[in-house]
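Hi everyone, sorry if this is the wrong subforum. Our group has a chain we'd like a structural model of before ordering constructs, and none of us has done structure prediction before. Sequence below.
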Amino acid sequence: MITSKIWGRTEMLVRHGAVELHRLEANRGGRSSIHNHDRINFFSVEAGQIVVELFAPPGKKGGQVGPVVEVRQMGAGERVTVGAGVWHRFTAISDAVVYEGYWGGPTTPLGIDRKSNGAILTDEQIGKFLSAIHFGDAPKPKIKPIMEQ
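Answer:
Right subforum, don't worry. Here is the predicted structure as tokens:
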């Protein structure tokens, strides 16, 4: 099943119990919502480049997520795993093909909680975003919710 998103499209390739695998086609500047999942989530980049940001949890139930605590810029052949319940989003800094998988949670369809909407960034916004993450405007990580693969 192919689903259109503001940032591109996603195709579910596999759903078996608590395991899902999706193929994402993200357009340059495409940005997902800030969200979390009820299971472990991984991204594996086949082509292009994306940035995955992790956010501190909300201070109270239903509150806004905290500041960025970790940022990963990823290209073809790179992958990263995000723990269940960790707030995150991705931004495509070029057209990108990414495989996204989920496992280790309920056997019901994927649970997701969103704190924002997806978007398309302009070239100017992409440049400002990349400058901010490359020059350290984001706080240094205090927690390590991303597990290297």
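For your construct planning: Confidence is low (pLDDT under 50) at residues 135-149. Helices lie at 123-134.
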